[in-house]
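Protein folds are increasingly written down as discrete tokens. With that in mind, we are printing a sequence and the tokens encoding its fold.
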Amino acid sequence: TANLNIQGENGQLQITGTSSQLATPLEIESSVNLPEQTFSVAGSINDIALNGSGSFGEALQVAIDAVSGDDVMTLNVTGTAAQPELTLQGSLPAESLSPIIRVPLAGTVTADVSRSNNGYAGTVSLEGEVSSVPVNATLTGNGADLQLSGSATAYGQDLQLSGSVGPDIAVIAQGEIGAVTLSRNETGFVVMGEGTTPVLNASGFEVPSQPWSLSGPVNDLSLSIGGSEIAIEQNNGLEISGDISQTIQRGGAEIL
């Protein structure tokens, strides 16, 4: 839910608001001078402090800083209300952004990206982790959307990242044993994946190749490997639980 309080006198507006829609509540205060068409804003979300000001006459001139520790990311808005141009530059700790996009993040997000009538240009990069998976990824503006490239390492497997982020989100991680797709629906981010595990050999024992599938929200995944059903949850840390039903062979004979 969101709460907004507006008080006005002699062309001056004082606006305060809070929102509990995010995992960490948003708090914001703004002062608006209607005759001069200017405003200032301050607030916070998670450990990010928000400070900014601007004018909104025939031309927009807005600058808002998001500050976390020594890191700063600045949003500039120019152009007109009908044709705004947005530029995002700087860096922030990825952990600070997790409540906003509802995905567990770690590391650093760096941006030098713009959005105008011509679409997206520039880059946004993450060097860190997504849901405890090491990731090095870059989004590059390509007009209508942002194209993803990069790599990740999950459960000992090297993955190549591709896809796009725009009005829709479709991110694909492809490895030797299969592929996983991250997309967004009305409830948040969801994961779907499938493939086949390799044959595993150790000290004469063999685990045969078998199909696997992965599905669910990013913080509550269901993993099926052969006859095993495993739950992977990440709310207050990573938790893995489930029922393991696994065939083990030796010398071509099933022993378990």
Notes: The mean pLDDT is 87. Residues 37 and 57 are 6 Å apart (CA to CA). DSSP finds one helix and 24 strands in the chain.
